[in-house]
Every structure is written in structure tokens, then in C-alpha cells.
Amino acid sequence: MGIISALKCRECNKEYSPRFIYICEDCFGPLDVQYKIDTTITRNTFESRSDLTYWRYFEILPIEDKKNIVSLNGAITPLQKADNLGNSLGGFKNLYIKNDSVNPTFSFKDRPAGVAVSKAKEMNLSAVGCASTGNLASATAAHAAKANLPCYIFAPSDIEDVKIAQALSYGGKFVAVDGTYDDANRIASVIGDSNGYGIVNINMRPYYVEGSKTLAFEVLEQLNWIVPDVLVIPVGSGAMLNAICKGFEEIMNLGLISDISNLRIIAAQPNGCAPIVDAYKNRSNEVIPVEKPDTVAKSLAIGDPGDGLYVLKRLRQFNGIGEKVTDSEIKNAILLLAKSEGIFTEPAGGVAVGVLKKLIEENKIDKDENIVCYVTGNGLKTTESITDLLPTPSSVKPDIRLVSAMIR
Ligand SMILES: *Cc1c(COP(=O)(O)O)cnc(C)c1O
Ligand SMILES: [Zn+2]
């Protein structure tokens, strides 16, 4: 399994032995998992595995003993060549959608939540939980159910009804906070620390973020180890974007790819909550929190993003761009993706596709580039977000003549 050498401070590089700690004692920087690199790993090590879950990359995931893995057995998600979408955007021939809407709880959050709940089991914690913008609630609750652990969820009360019902169905205790995600996050943090619960995206964060690296590993394996030119990534806290970058670096350090200098990273946020993109556009190194996020993309409504500064750093490192789109652009992008590729995403995926479209229209992406657009959640959870753009089906008596007249 993944042999952890240390937890290393992202700011001051101080190293800690692996334990239940998530912030540097000296400088309060976040801690990242470092591995003892297994030099015998080759491309074939992974390619030859029959395990189709993301645990096929277990050497670079932070679980020491396989018996602690908590898995809902979701398979590697499709990397769909998106020629129809590419054509409608002006002849893009190498455009791919990483379709993470088809995970067991229908968002990419099954990756980080699955790893964090497994680690909570390995550390013998008595309960798990999360602060959620919607999707993490179900991902954590479902894995907690499988692990037989109690699960405490803290989320803003205005998230989509389906996301609440889904999380409750898995048995999660759902606290609907009348406030923003940042309010829910503060409460979850205190409850977690005072009770010793593993709050997956707070005190388990060093382990949590490792799960999202598999979004890099899978894409590389699916592209036959060709490093894409452009990644379009929706951003809330920024943890996923940063983890994907760490994933590409780790595969390079293992020697399975030789160079990632062509890689460009696009951070995509909604207009109604774009603190990171705004900092990028203002050439500022300060992420000014958005007090009251207001966007149809509720899963990205994090006003004070934990990894904001690190996303800015990644954009500098990888020649990146930050861009944002309006609610209307988001909804139209949802329908564009659905009608061209048969993929139904929630607004976060609409943010990624909408930003891709916008940058193509501004000639910031070339036709011959290899593009991967991450679609991270499922449209079935958020149907109310697009009903105003859809026609109302007219009803008719079950009479062939009447129906024939209708569809003519
Ligand atoms: C949480 C979430 C994101 C953003 O992930 P961060 O790590 O918070 O940046 C993107 N898409 C969906 C569907 C999400 O649920
Ligand atoms: Zn430090």
C-alpha cells in the first residue's frame, strides 16, 4: 500500500510523522502527504491491474493496510472524446470530457471522501463528517454507511433538495446551517476537533485531497500517458485543482511521464462566487472572500476558499488562466453538453464547459490542443436549475392521429 514517509508543510516544509494532524504547528500551513517512492513502479504496474476502482493506484494513496479500504466499487470514469462538442465550438478535434458524474454517489467527491473515510477507519476514529456544499454530504455519508461509522454533515440550508434527501438516505445526520458554506465549515471544524471526529475535508484534509489526484492518474492512463495541453477544472475550495496538479507531478516523479511543461491549467468559477478568478484577473495575490455567494452553481459557492492561494500559485506554475461565467452561460453550457455529448451535468460541470467555450471564443485555446474538461457532478441532482430553459411538454390524449399531428 501507499507508504507515507511524512506529512509535509506546504509553506515551511517542516515534516511530521503521519498522525491525526492537518495544520503545521509552526506556521499554520496545510500539510501534504509524502510517499516513500516505489522505484519498481512502471506504466504496466497500473495498466495490468484488474482492479477498476481508483484503488488501482494504491501505492500513491495514503492507506497503509488494504483491509481498511472503504469502497463503493465505482469504476474508472469515462474519458469521452467529445467530437460533437468540439465541432460545435469550432472544429476542436482533441477535446475530451472526463465524465465524473457517474460515480457511485454521482460526483467526483467519491474520490476524496472514499480516501478520507478509509483513513478514518485506519485511524480508528469513532465518527466521520464533513462541511459540504452538497455533493460531499452524500459521498461522505455513503462511505460512512459502508464503513459502519456515524456521519455528521454540516451544510448551508439552501442547497438543492435532492442533495439533502440523498445524504439523509445514507443515514447521515444532516445539520442545515442557516448561513453560508463558510459558516457551516467553521462549525464543522470546532465539532470535529472537540469530539475527535474525522471531518473529511477539514481535519482529514491531507488524506482527503489525495483522492482527487486519481483524476490525474486516470486521465493519463486513458490518454496512453500523453500529457494533455489544457485542463479545465471547476473550482470551489480549490482542493481538487491543486490535487490534480500534485497527481501529474507524482506521475512524473515516478518516471512514467517525462515532462509536464506543456500542461496549462484553467480554473473555472461562477460569476456569483469567483474570489480566486477575480484575484487572478486583478493580478493580486490576495483572495478576497465573497461574503454572500450568489450562484446557480451551489457546489462551487465557497466564499473563502481554503486552497485559493495555492490555486493562484498553480496558475502561475502551469501558465494558467482563471475565468468565470454567468448563471445564464452556465445553464446554456449544461444544455450544450447534454445535447452534443449525451452527458447531463450539474451547474459545476456547466461552469467548466462554459469557461471552455468562453476561452475558445477569445482565441485562448488552439484547435490542435489536447483538452480535458472535468465534468464533476450529475445533472439529476439539480434539475430545478435548468427547467426555465426547457420547453414544457404538451400533453395529449393517447390517440395516434392527435400525436401524429403534434410531432409533424
Ligand atoms: C466540490 C465540487 C467541486 C469543487 O471542488 P473543490 O475541491 O472544492 O474546488 C467541483 N464540482 C463539484 C460537482 C463539486 O461537488
Ligand atoms: Zn509550516
Automatic annotation (TrEMBL):
<keyword id="KW-0663">Pyridoxal phosphate</keyword>
<feature type="domain" description="Tryptophan synthase beta chain-like PALP">
    <location>
        <begin position="71"/>
        <end position="377"/>
    </location>
</feature>
<dbReference type="GO" id="GO:0004795">
    <property type="term" value="F:threonine synthase activity"/>
</dbReference>
<dbReference type="InterPro" id="IPR001926">
    <property type="entry name" value="TrpB-like_PALP"/>
</dbReference>
<keyword id="KW-0456">Lyase</keyword>
<dbReference type="GO" id="GO:0003941">
    <property type="term" value="F:L-serine ammonia-lyase activity"/>
</dbReference>
<dbReference type="InterPro" id="IPR036052">
    <property type="entry name" value="TrpB-like_PALP_sf"/>
</dbReference>
<feature type="modified residue" description="N6-(pyridoxal phosphate)lysine">
    <location>
        <position position="109"/>
    </location>
</feature>
<dbReference type="GO" id="GO:0006565">
    <property type="term" value="P:L-serine catabolic process"/>
</dbReference>
<dbReference type="GO" id="GO:0009088">
    <property type="term" value="P:threonine biosynthetic process"/>
</dbReference>
<dbReference type="Pfam" id="PF00291">
    <property type="entry name" value="PALP"/>
</dbReference>
<dbReference type="InterPro" id="IPR050147">
    <property type="entry name" value="Ser/Thr_Dehydratase"/>
</dbReference>
<protein>
    <recommendedName>
        <fullName>Threonine synthase</fullName>
        <ecNumber>4.2.3.1</ecNumber>
    </recommendedName>
</protein>
<dbReference type="GO" id="GO:0006567">
    <property type="term" value="P:L-threonine catabolic process"/>
</dbReference>
<dbReference type="GO" id="GO:0009097">
    <property type="term" value="P:isoleucine biosynthetic process"/>
</dbReference>
<comment type="similarity">
    <text>Belongs to the threonine synthase family.</text>
</comment>
<dbReference type="GO" id="GO:0004794">
    <property type="term" value="F:threonine deaminase activity"/>
</dbReference>
<dbReference type="InterPro" id="IPR004450">
    <property type="entry name" value="Thr_synthase-like"/>
</dbReference>
